[in-house]
Amino acid sequence: MQIRHGQLDNPKVQSLLKVHLADMQTHSPPESVHALDDTALRSAQVIFLTAWQENDLLGCGALHRLDHSHGELKSMRTATAHQRKGVAAALLAALIDLARANGLNRLSLETGTPAAFDAARAFYAKHGFVTCPAFADYPNDDPYSTFMTRRL
């Protein structure tokens, strides 16, 4: 598996991001979908990574710098054909390394509360994330959002 920076213009990446957004919209109302669009993923505050096996896209994820010490995981998605093969763990490890290299000491995320997000919440808990209050500009009272964080 090879982790690459960028690749947002790659049609395979665009397709995976469309699947990701559509899936989020299936399980949460529009006001509770916080996935970044293509433009937001190109922000100077975002580092976007992809995982590949030769020319086969395995997954993606992003690190969004919130401030000088705090970052957020965004757009974590494993291609369906590659789930349960360690892709998410490899991307998460790379994103944690990036966060540390960029001087961040806290990493947080927002994920859903419906059952469709059970595996995501369990995955992050397995990797040291604990539930926390809403952060950044997220609303405190969104019943469709779970917030998690960990110190680096």
Concise account of the structure shown:
With 152 residues, the chain is an alpha+beta fold. The protein has helices spanning 11-27, 38-41, 87-101, 118-126; strands at residues 2-5, 46-53, 56-65, 70-78, 106-112, 130-131, 145-151.
Would you give an account of this structure?
With about 150 residues, the protein is an alpha+beta fold. The protein has one domain (about 1-150): Gcn5-related N-acetyltransferase (GNAT) (Aminopeptidase). It contains 4 helices and 7 strands; from the N terminus they run E-H-H-E-E-E-H-E-H-E-E. It has a 7-stranded mixed β-sheet with strand order 1-2-3-4-5-7-6, with helices on both faces. The longest helix has 17 residues, at about 10-25. The model has no long low-confidence stretch (mean pLDDT about 90).
Q: In terms of topology, how is this protein built?
A:
Blueprint: E1 2-5, H1 11-27, H2 38-41, E2 46-53, E3 56-65, E4 70-78, H3 87-101, E5 106-112, H4 118-126, E6 130-131, E7 145-151
Parallel strand pairs: 4-5
Antiparallel strand pairs: 1-2, 2-3, 3-4, 5-7, 6-7
Order of strands across the main sheet: 1-2-3-4-5-7-6
Order of helices and strands: EHHEEEHEHEE
Indicate how many domains the architecture comprises.
1
CATH superfamily: Gcn5-related N-acetyltransferase (GNAT)
Number of strands: 7
Low-confidence stretches: none
Helical stretch count?
4
